[in-house]
Amino acid sequence: MNAKPLDLSTVCRQTREWCSQVSGIALKYYRNAPEYRRKHDDSVVTAADLEIQEWLLQTIHTTFPEHAALAEEQTPLLEDLRPVANQRYCWVIDPVDGTRNFFRGIPCFCISIGLLDRGHPVMGVIHDPLIGQAYYGWQGGGAWLGDDRLEVNSADWNFDSLVGIPTGRREMLPQIIYTEWLKLAVLRNHGSSALHLAYVAAGALDGCYAKKTRLWDIAAGALLVWEAGGSCTGPLGELLFPIQPEKYQGEKMAHLAGGPTIHQNLLTSLRG
Questions:
Q1: Spacing of C-alpha 74 from chain mean position
Q2: Which residues pair with 124 in a beta bridge?
Q3: Which residues fall within 8 angstroms of residue 79, CB to CB, at 6 or more apart?
Q4: Which residues sit opposite 149 in a β-bridge?
């Protein structure tokens, strides 16, 4: 772990520039019948996912040759950058979060890039190519949207609360969501866990929950929620980080995020 300490604000600015550049790839394919195939878990990967990921991996490797990387799509370059023990920095990339939305022409998807330092998120950028805006932040520097500093919603759980949940195929949600959350909140699914977390950081969503997300879905968003004054944990309050990147093999990382009060409300209900 002898890598030179990074100026995280500078790295964040650089990452935002990268996201702006690869947005052109996403827009090239969006609503243009992108090729896709199904992976072993029935999720979808498109040519845009692969092209964006390879561009980012190559750029990161050129800029920070001593850094490792984890990403959603398995490619030869990713194997070359696979983290090893005692490597300080590891990039975590989801080239298109919300791929099903993307290839069906639904305008709700994003590029998510997080950076781990010793297994803990310290920088994150979630970029919406269609709107052309990025939610971004770094450890100790706050969470931002443009020039606006983000804050989670600090209100208590009430009838106007908006909570993001998954609604995917074979998604077995806790029964409490049907018996309690539906009565006390308005539930939403935007089809992108990374955007859900960004929206929580911005106070647009009061909270979010998901069971089947993986590291690349949440690494950037968790950092943004924390920097915006919120909480992001496992669904029973367990810590999600730090992790050991060299041991991560794509395991699911269920999470619960929100402003401090509503996070505690939701946590209490999930604990039963």
A1: 18
A2: 114, 137
A3: none
A4: 144
Q: For the chain, give me the number of helices (H) and strands (E)?
A: 9, 14
pTM of the model as a whole: 0.95
> How many independent structural domains does the chain possess?
2
* Same domain, yes or no: 76 and 140: yes
CA distances in angstroms from 99 to 44, 109, 110, 196, 205, listed in the order given: 7, 7, 9, 15, 21
Give me 47's structure tokens.
Answer: 């040519």
- Same domain for 73 and 49? yes
The b-or-e profile of 28-37 (16+ CB within 10 A means b, else e) is ebbeeebebe
Give the strands of the sheet with 68-71, arranged side by side. 68-71, 89-97, 110-117, 120-128, 133-138, 142-145, 148-149
pLDDT digits (tens, 9 = 90+) for 14-26: 999 999 999 999 9
CATH of the domain at 131: 3.30.540.10
- Tens-place pLDDT, residues 107-165: 999 999 999 999 999 999 999 999 999 999 999 999 999 999 999 999 888 889 999 99
Coil vs helix vs strand at 69: strand
Q: Which of 93, 117, 149 is the last residue of a domain?
A: 149
Of 52, 120, 97, 109, residue with least CA distance to 213: 97
| Residue 171: CATH number of its domain | 3.40.190.80
CA distance 171 to 166: 7
Owning domain of residue 105: 8-149
